[in-house]
């Protein structure tokens, strides 16, 4: 009897793989749960992770059977979106299950490296000057909070403990005095294997201070010491999606979005773009798998009431204008700027997905930071991310001061702008507890302070425009609907 069950399971899975579709009838859903791999599976080196997309509605037993038939093992399956994470040491796994269904960012990364693994060059943060001083009130240095009227908002509300912001990032220091009161360990998890791990070690920072900095912008305590966040009365959760090499592979992000959705978080902050590409193309093999998996995860989170806030990125690129030629020097001013592919279906994930609040960055003078990406129809709102060239008139640093493990640090980037928006959204959610994600999105847009296109955007005085702002005062490619306003959020 066991032998008959094995033959049937493999036969069902093999037939599904051969058709290239996992859409099945209700009867087929009753296929046996155990599906031993075929006899011709081989192991070659270490097991690699794959993201696998199935037809919507595919049951867990059927998905697991399909993966086993392709010589893999399922480590995680999200039936709500029919997306799995699988591992396989067989180099033929991807071709067996189909390149239109599976992609391994891990394999792609390894195939492009020589020698020791290279750390990702951080394209979404401009580092500042580290300082460990913290036993004093540092709020006078927070020009960014002045810009969005955070202190005035706190006189009305600091936010509700019922609101939870998931910080999908590199981890949050659980011992930082400014964050310990806001951080909820029970809602935190590490996702850097593609499978959520609630152990403290899995969601704590290891090689990057980025997530702790972002968390401080959102919810650092208003206690007269250190810095103060936009919404110090709300809770935050550490959802670690950045590995020790600095990469955010798609299975990490999918895991993070699903964790946030299933645990009833209100908002997620996403200060990153999904690796291994700056632009993920919907019509290219492998990339299409990533796009579909992440799209499904974000839409599921939205349907569960989670508002997704994301950074636009620091490529200084117009995200709504295709490049004439990706190889042209005129489209790559420096090695840090990745030109937009010709194909307009190539998007920055997750910022350019539907239902995501995409955030550009301004400096202290409320002008788009030179590094910030932009684009009419791509930007929803803007927020202070800092710019060394736009220092406040009183001499304060042009970057954003916030928490880092064992102290405080200045950083500039759209990574810093996004958490200001998440904080304002948290204040809105606190005041309007019945609002769903689309309603919070709409309110964010409505309460933003209008910023018209600058008459002159010549940042370095060369006589040439460094970027072109299109649109009109109430909605344009630099600032979207405008600068978020914490005081307006608590008054609405």
Automatic annotation (TrEMBL):
Which ranges carry the Peptidase S8/S53 domain?
Answer: 161-462
* Record family assignment: Belongs to the peptidase S8 family.
Alphabetically list the UniProt keywords.
Hydrolase, Protease, Serine protease, Signal
**Pfam family name, one:** Peptidase_S8
What is the organism of origin for this protein? Saccharothrix xinjiangensis
Q: Does the keyword Protease apply?
A: yes
Cite the residue spans of the region called Disordered. 112-131, 320-340
How far does the signal peptide extend, from start to end residue? Answer: 1-30
Q: Which residues does the entry assign to the active site, renumbered to this chain?
A: 169 (charge relay system), 210 (charge relay system), 415 (charge relay system)
Say yes or no: keyword Signal present: yes
| Name assigned to this protein | S8 family serine peptidase
